[in-house]
């Protein structure tokens, strides 16, 4: 994988951990997530006006990905109700690279070198080990964290196929994100009503900026998947747990043990092998 692609994905990982920390630290996470999606929709539509639309063959994938992203949002919000960033985030992100590699092989015909598979396994194993407390996987929101990982794998493979059919990675990204950003507020209004969504409250600007950060982060990932193996891109992206562990320690009051540091070293080794 070219060095500039590796560097871009690692930058996206930092951005991804940052907006997840913003969401985890919010008082009303469903509202914060919906405001983020509004920011994604507005920014995506503004960019889309200046781009030619993607190829027709990719639109089905863009719509499906938007729906899967809404499911991901709902599961992610639910998983953060009872789990720390340092536990829930590693499970949801660590379970996805291997799932993506398997799905990409089954549905996109990708063949991955053994060395890359080893790197992916190290990254996934190191990430999941971060979620353990001693010898126990004590995470109350485990089903939702694993469900989040399944949604990540699903939309990643769908977008990987869609962007390759689109002929225009940026156009595909902004149109998919515009659809996703519009769907999430509709779901929120159905659950709580329009007045509850559009009432100004503290944290609006932070959530809005978090949405813009998330758009940039995923745009980088989709660009990388347009020419690099999906599983390898996903594994590199999931090194965001390294940044999440540090953010959780410095800003959210979570612990950073020797075991977590060793797990981070395993993740770094896998990243080097993939890169």
Keywords, please?
275 residues; mainly alpha; 0% strand
Total strands: 0
Given the C-alpha coordinates, what overall shape results? globular
For the residues shown, what is the average pLDDT?
82
Q: State the low-pLDDT regions, or none.
A: none
Structural class: mainly alpha
Specify the helix fraction band: over 70%
Portion in strands: under 5%
- Discrete helix count: 13
Order of helices and strands: HHHHHHHHHHHHH
Q: If you compute it from the alpha carbons, what radius of gyration comes out, rounded to the nearest whole angstrom?
A: 18 Å
Give the termini separation.
6 Å
Q: How many distinct domains?
A: 1
The quaternary organization reads as single chain
Short summary:
This protein is mainly α and about 280 residues long. Helices cover about 80% and strands about 0% of the residues.
What does this structure look like?
The protein has 275 residues and is mainly alpha-helical. The chain has one domain (3-274). Helices cover 78% and strands 0% of the residues. It has 13 helices and no strands.
